[in-house]
């Protein structure tokens, strides 16, 4: 009977050791799980921060898009005004060339008239 009691005692000791080992392993798992939860909490905090930053970036992107559209519209207006100035300048140059020709003709006529007047004065005095 003592042998049976020793056997039972040994079995209970083994079971007790296994339970202690399981308790230790469970404690390790709980510690690791707690560490994972802490890391997950940190990731969630960082994700929240990234979402906030993304929101700011989206707002800035919209503002930049509006400014780019305004610059493009202004560029179109400037290009149109530039084309109008170029057209006016071409007209001014054309008018200047016509006026130069007219002045040349008037100069030639003036010289011809002056010659005619001198000729008439010479004939009159002669």
Would you list the SSEs in sequence order as H and E?
H
- What proportion of the residues is helical, as a percent range? over 70%
The quaternary organization reads as single chain
Total helical segments: 1
General shape = rod-shaped
Q: Tally the beta strands.
A: 0
Rg, nearest Å: 53 Å
Biggest β-sheet, characterized? none
Please give the alpha-carbon distance between the first and last residues.
180 Å
Query: Which structural class should the secondary elements be placed in?
Result: mainly alpha
What percent of residues are in strands?
under 5%
Mean pLDDT: 95
Task: Give the low-pLDDT segments.
Answer: none
Provide structural commentary:
The chain has 126 residues and is an all-alpha fold. It has one helix and no strands. The protein has one helix at residues 2-125. The model has no long low-confidence stretch (mean pLDDT 95).
Question: Helix and strand layout, with pairings?
Answer:
Elements: H1 2-125
Structure at a glance:
The chain is an all-alpha fold and 126 residues long. The chain has one helix spanning 2-125.
Protein traits:
mainly alpha, 0% strand, 126 residues, rod-shaped
């Amino acid at each position: 009977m003592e042998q049976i009691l020793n056997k039972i005692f040994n079995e209970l000791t083994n079971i007790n050791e296994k339970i202690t080992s399981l308790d230790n392993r469970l404690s390790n798992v709980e510690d690791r799980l707690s560490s994972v939860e802490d890391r997950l909490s940190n990731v969630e905090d960082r994700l929240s921060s990234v979402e906030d930053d993304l929101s700011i970036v989206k707002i800035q992107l919209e503002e930049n898009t509006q400014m780019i559209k305004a610059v493009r519209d202004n560029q179109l207006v400037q290009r149109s005004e530039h084309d109008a100035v170029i057209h006016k300048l071409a007209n001014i140059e054309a008018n200047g060339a016509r006026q130069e020709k007219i002045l040349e003709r008037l100069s030639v006529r003036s010289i011809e008239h002056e010659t005619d007047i001198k000729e008439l004065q010479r004939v009159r005095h002669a």
